[in-house]
UniProtKB/TrEMBL annotation:
Location in the cell: Membrane
Protein name: Rhomboid family intramembrane serine protease
A Gene Ontology cellular-component term: membrane
Any one GO molecular-function label of the UniProt entry: serine-type endopeptidase activity
PANTHER family per UniProt: RHOMBOID PROTEASE GLPG (PTHR43066:SF26), RHOMBOID-RELATED PROTEIN (PTHR43066)
Claim: Transmembrane helix is one of the keywords in the record: yes
Gene3D superfamilies for the chain: Rhomboid-like
UniProt keyword annotations, A-Z: Cell inner membrane, Cell membrane, Hydrolase, Membrane, Protease, Transmembrane, Transmembrane helix
Pfam families: Rhomboid
GO biological process: proteolysis
Bilayer topology term: Multi-pass membrane protein
Primary residence: membrane
Amino acid sequence: MSPNQPRTREPILNLPAAITLCLLALVGIHAARLLLSEETDFTLIIDWAVIPARWSVAFGGVQAEEVMTSLREGVAEDTLTPLMALAQYVLDGGEGRPLTALTYAVLHGSWAHVLINSVWLAAFGTPIVRRCGAGRLFILLAASAIGGAVLYVLMNPLQVLPMIGASGAVSGLMAAASWFMFAPASWHWEGRLTQPHERPRETIGHMVRNRQVLIFLGIWFVTNYVFAFVQPLGLMDASIAWEAHIGGFVVGLLVFPLLDPLPARPRRISA
């Protein structure tokens, strides 16, 4: 090779097409909402967000009056009237809107909210796509979003405020990646070390012995605690639905082995 031959430039962001599509969808939807009137945007959020009380009345055998009673007993006087009006609007007709188990994940409360989720989606979704393909990525995202929504509703059955954001789905990607991101490297048939997405999936036994996995999981849980209960530096302008994060994470952890096209690492750990 001639020393004067120009070097090819590597792209700064080498994202798979499926990840780019997801990011464009999240950012584009949030940008499009800025063009709506406040009333229209509010209606959109209420209609397509997860609202636990709506699910509880439609599918859980809860009576609408139980929701109203809970509001009267647990809400301050200055916020009671608007919340009662919201509850009446949400519960009118008893419609459950099960599709909101997915649609809530493409709605966000602020630019900080959507950008943080986009960064984590790119970081953890990229190795998932390269390992499993776009189709299995979308299945994993959908399952994790549903898992996050279900756990949030189960833990807040009478809540009338909407829950939105892709954090539950992204948490599922993080959990899925933990199966292989920290697996030991081996030699690829091309004569190089394997990339993380090319390595055999860890078993539970390997994971609980893998210090990097335990540190990663510890940091994830601590970070969720900090943002849910401390909310540092005012980064978020609404409370964090930590229940959705955990629900998405657990589903991602359980579902990924069913979607993984590569075999698991042998159970035996060599000395």
